C-alpha cells in the first residue's frame, strides 16, 4: 500500500478539503498566463495593453488608475478552447467562459442578454462542467432609459428569457455593473463546475429573483452567493439593500456600512468564518472613494486590500456594490 504522503490526487481531481479554486490579483503589469489559468478579467487599461488569450476586458477603470487583472486558477492545468463566439478554458472540474456580443446584432441589450444566456446554456448542455456557479455582466449605460425601459431592467428581461427553464435554485451568483465608456457590447464571463454548487441566500435581503414588480418586469436572475462542493463561497455583487429596498440613498458611508453588514450576514449564512480572500468594490462615478479601502477592511476583518473599480450600479440611488470570495480555508472542514 502506498504511504499516505505518497498518495497523489489524480490529475484534475480534487483532494477532499483541498482548496480547489484560486484567484489572484495582478496590479500594474501582467505576467504570462500560468497553465492553470481558467480565465481572467481585466480592469483599467486600454485593450492594447490587456489584450490576450483568456482575458475579458471589463471596460471599466480602476480608481487608482493602475490596470488590474483578476485571474481565476484551476487546481491543475486548464486547456483553452473556443466554440463560436465563446472563449473558454476547461479543467476536469471547472470551466471559465467569456462572451462578448454586439448589441446592434441583437436588437439591443435585452436581445443581447437573451442570446448570451441561451448560448451559455446550450454550450454547457452535454458538458461535464454543466453547473453555472458565478457570472459577471458588464454593460454600457446601465441606468439609461426610464422606468421599465431602463437598460438594466431590459437586461434582466433578456437574461431571464435566455435562462428560461432553469429552476430558481440553480441560478448562479452574479454581478451586473455598468460602464460609462460605451463599447456597444454586452460582455459576460462565468464559472461553471462539474459539481453543482449550493446557492446561499442572505437573511437580511429577500431573494433577488423574488423582487416585487416595482423593480422591473423581470426580477434579476441570481443567487446571493454560491457554495462550491470544494468549499469556496462566492458572493454576488452586494449592495445597500435591506429586504428589497435601497437604503441610505446618496450617502456613500452609510451605504458602505450597510453593504458590509450584508456581506457579514452572507458569510455567516454560507458558513464562512474566516476573512474573504478577494474583495472588489464597484463605486459609482462621482461617489468618491476616500476612506473606502480602510472602511472595507475594518468591516471585513482580515480581508486583503480591495480592488476599487469605477462602475455604475443597477439602481440609480446605489453608490457602491461589493463582491467577496471566501476560499475553502475560511470554511470549517465540518461544513466541506
Ligand atoms: C441587488 O442586490 C443589487 O442583476 O446580476 C447585484 C448582483 C445586483 C447581481 C444582477 C444585481 C445583480 O439587487 C444589484
Low-confidence stretches: 1-19
Sheet/helix structural class = alpha+beta
What distance lies between the first and last C-alpha atoms, to the nearest angstrom? Answer: 27 Å
Secondary-structure element string: EEHEEEEEEHEHEEEEEEEEHEHEE
Query: Which range does the strand content fall in?
Result: 25-35%
The number of strands is: 20
Précis, in short:
The chain has 336 residues and is of the alpha+beta class.
Structure description:
The chain is of the alpha+beta class and 336 residues long. It has helices spanning 47-50, 109-124, 151-162, 252-269, 292-299; strands at 22-27, 37-43, 55-57, 61-62, 68-73, 79-83, 86-90, 94-102, 131-140, 173-179, 185-193, 198-200, 225-227, 233-235, 238-239, 241-242, 245-246, 278-283, 307-310, 320-326. Strand 7 and strand 8 (94-102) form a beta hairpin. The longest helix is centred in the last third of the chain and has 18 residues, at 252-269. The protein starts with 21 loop residues before the first strand and ends in a 10-residue tail after the last strand. Bound molecules: 3-(2-carboxyethyl)benzoic acid (3EB). 3-(2-carboxyethyl)benzoic acid binds at residues 137, 174-176, 208, 220, 222, 236-237, 239, 241, 314, 321.
Amino acid at each position: 500500500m502506498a504511504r499516505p504522503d505518497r498518495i497523489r490526487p489524480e490529475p484534475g481531481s480534487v483532494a477532499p478539503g483541498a482548496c480547489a479554486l484560486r484567484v489572484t490579483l495582478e496590479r500594474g503589469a501582467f505576467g504570462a498566463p500560468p497553465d492553470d489559468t481558467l480565465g481572467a478579467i481585466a480592469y483599467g487599461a486600454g485593450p492594447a495593453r490587456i489584450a490576450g488569450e483568456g482575458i475579458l476586458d471589463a471596460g471599466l477603470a480602476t480608481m487608482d488608475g493602475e490596470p488590474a487583472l483578476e485571474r481565476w486558477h484551476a487546481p491543475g492545468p486548464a486547456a483553452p478552447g473556443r466554440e463560436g463566439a465563446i472563449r473558454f478554458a476547461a479543467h476536469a472540474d471547472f470551466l471559465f467562459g467569456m462572451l462578448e456580443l454586439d448589441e446592434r446584432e441583437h436588437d439591443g441589450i435585452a436581445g443581447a442578454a437573451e442570446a448570451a444566456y441561451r448560448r451559455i446554456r446550450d454550450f454547457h448542455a452535454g458538458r461535464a462542467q454543466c453547473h453555472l456557479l458565478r457570472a459577471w455582466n458588464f454593460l454600457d449605460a446601465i441606468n439609461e432609459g426610464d422606468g421599465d425601459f431602463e437598460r438594466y431592467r431590459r437586461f434582466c428581461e433578456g437574461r431571464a428569457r435566455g435562462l428560461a427553464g432553469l429552476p430558481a435554485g440553480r441560478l448562479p451568483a452574479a454581478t451586473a455593473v455598468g460602464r460609462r465608456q460605451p463599447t456597444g457590447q454586452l460582455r459576460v464571463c462565468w464559472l461553471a463546475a462539474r459539481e453543482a454548487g449550493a446557492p446561499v441566500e442572505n437573511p437580511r435581503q429577500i431573494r433577488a429573483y423574488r423582487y416585487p414588480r416595482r423593480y422591473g418586469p423581470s426580477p434579476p436572475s441570481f443567487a446571493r452567493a454560491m457554495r462550491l462542493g470544494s468549499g469556496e463561497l462566492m458572493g454576488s455583487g452586494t449592495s445597500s439593500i435591506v429586504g428589497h429596498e435601497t437604503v441610505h440613498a446618496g450617502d456613500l458611508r452609510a451605504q458602505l456600512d450597510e453593504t458590509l453588514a450584508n456581506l457579514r450576514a452572507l458569510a455567516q449564512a454560507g458558513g464562512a468564518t474566516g476573512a474573504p480572500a478577494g474583495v472588489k468594490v464597484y463605486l459609482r462615478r462621482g461617489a468618491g472613494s476616500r476612506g473606502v479601502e480602510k472602511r472595507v477592511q475594518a468591516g471585513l476583518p482580515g480581508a486583503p486590500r480591495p480592488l476599487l473599480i469605477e462602475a455604475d450600479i443597477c439602481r440609480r440611488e446605489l453608490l457602491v456594490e461589493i463582491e467577496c470570495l471566501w476560499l475553502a480555508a475560511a470554511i470549517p472542514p465540518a461544513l466541506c
